[in-house]
């Protein structure tokens, strides 16, 4: 009973729904709403696309207000969503509504790459909770980030690599989706765009994990273990005395 309560407090059980909720709201809801409004209620293609964009736009706005750790990404997505919706209503072009998704990817991708250049990789805030699971690793993270650990330089380099991979993946996804938005039939691109998005996310996870997150996790573990061993050795003379 105590363990279950502790897990709930630390967020281990509540973490999974939080990871999948954005995927459901940004992908499943808009696609389902589009076909329901267009085929079920007889709305025009443009109107169905516009109304199906409301939920993800509201979600990104809420995230920008409540999830302060990822305000940079949420803010970029929110701005692009709002601008694209306004332009779509003005032009009445349903393909522009589809192209907004590539606009989100390109804006976020560029923002991530700029953050790397500025030395403040944007994806670090999203990555840290997956790597830091306890106080020992929290302390190890601090040493690796502030330059006091031996592997600090390599750790920070891998941190930049992780964000660079995601920035590059999102820009590539942008190119594919914007081409599809103006060349593929609208009804097809509604679901195909989400397939491209999922493929990009998988690529980001695999490549970013192999060249960024994976090595960072190993260095983090090694630093935490080294600190623990150092503490144990320091305690031995005191115990002997």
User: Helices and strands, in N-to-C order?
Assistant: HHHHHHHHHH
Return the structural class. mainly alpha
Strand content: under 5%
Distance between the termini: 41 Å
Overall mean pLDDT score? Answer: 76
Spatial extent as radius of gyration: 22 Å
Low-confidence stretches: 1-20
User: Per the principal axes of the C-alpha atoms, what is the gross shape?
Assistant: elongated
Q: What oligomeric state do the depicted chains represent?
A: single chain
Number of helix segments?
10
The biggest beta sheet is recorded as: none
Kindly state the percentage of residues in helix: over 70%
The count of strands amounts to: 0
Descriptive notes:
It is a single chain. The chain is mostly helical and 241 residues long. The protein is 86% helix and 0% strand. The protein has 10 helices and no strands. It has helices at residues 2-10, 15-40, 45-52, 54-66, 71-91, 94-117, 124-131, 135-146, 152-183, 186-240. Helix 6 (94-117) packs parallel to helix 10 (186-240), helix 8 (135-146) crosses helix 9 (152-183) and helix 8 (135-146) crosses helix 10 (186-240). The two termini are 41 Å apart. Residues 1-20 have low confidence and may be disordered.
SSE blueprint:
Blueprint: H1 2-10, H2 15-40, H3 45-52, H4 54-66, H5 71-91, H6 94-117, H7 124-131, H8 135-146, H9 152-183, H10 186-240
Describe the structure concisely:
Helix content is 86%, strand content 0%.
Supply database-style keywords.
241 residues, mainly alpha, 10 helices, disordered N terminus
């Amino acid at each position: 009973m105590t363990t279950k309560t502790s897990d709930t407090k630390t967020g281990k059980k509540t973490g999974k729904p939080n990871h999948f909720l954005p995927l459901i709201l940004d992908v499943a809801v808009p696609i389902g709403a589009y076909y329901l409004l267009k085929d079920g209620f007889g709305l025009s293609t443009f109107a169905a696309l516009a109304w199906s964009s409301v939920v993800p736009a509201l979600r990104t706005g809420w995230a920008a207000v409540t999830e302060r750790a990822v305000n940079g990404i949420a803010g970029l997505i929110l701005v692009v969503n709002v601008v694209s919706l306004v332009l779509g209503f003005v032009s009445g072009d349903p393909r522009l509504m589809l192209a907004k998704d590539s606009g989100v990817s390109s804006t976020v991708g560029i923002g991530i790459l700029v953050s790397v250049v500025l030395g403040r990789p944007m994806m670090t805030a999203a990555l840290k909770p997956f790597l830091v699971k306890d106080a020992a690793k929290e302390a190890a993270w601090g040493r690796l980030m502030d330059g006091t650990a031996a592997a600090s330089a390599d750790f920070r380099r891998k941190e930049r690599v992780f964000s660079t991979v995601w920035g590059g993946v999102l820009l590539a996804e942008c190119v594919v989706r914007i081409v599809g938005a103006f060349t593929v039939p609208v009804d097809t691109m509604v679901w195909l765009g989400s397939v491209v998005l999922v493929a990009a996310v998988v690529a980001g996870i695999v490549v970013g994990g192999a060249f960024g997150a994976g090595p960072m996790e190993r260095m983090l573990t090694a630093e935490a273990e080294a600190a623990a061993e150092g503490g144990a050795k320091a305690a031995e003379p005191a115990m002997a005395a």
